[in-house]
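User: Can you predict the 3D structure of SH3 domain-containing protein? Sequence below.
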Amino acid sequence: MAYETPHIRVSSLYRGPRTTGTISAPSVPRNPTNIPPPKPKVRAVLYNYVPDHFDEIELRVGDQVQLLIEYNDFLDGWSFGTNLSTGRKGVFPLDCLIDVTRNS
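Assistant: Sure. Here are the predicted structure tokens for SH3 domain-containing protein:
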């Protein structure tokens, strides 16, 4: 008499039907609350700024700057963004900027 080993699926406790092909995760909406993402803040340069360190960018009066990160947690008055006039990204002091998106 030959001894047969039982066929047990060790990898899962699920005993449902076997599937073929790929199994995909359920679709999850990227923005489940349908709240539009905030618009990037754009500021105008009011005072020139000459960088002191490699990660800083130059600002000239009249340039437009897009704020990507405001360091509110540190309260140090600096931000990270893009000078839209030159295309360069880096950090800069917020003191040199004025809000151009205010409603008058």
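The mean pLDDT is 76. The radius of gyration is 28 Å.
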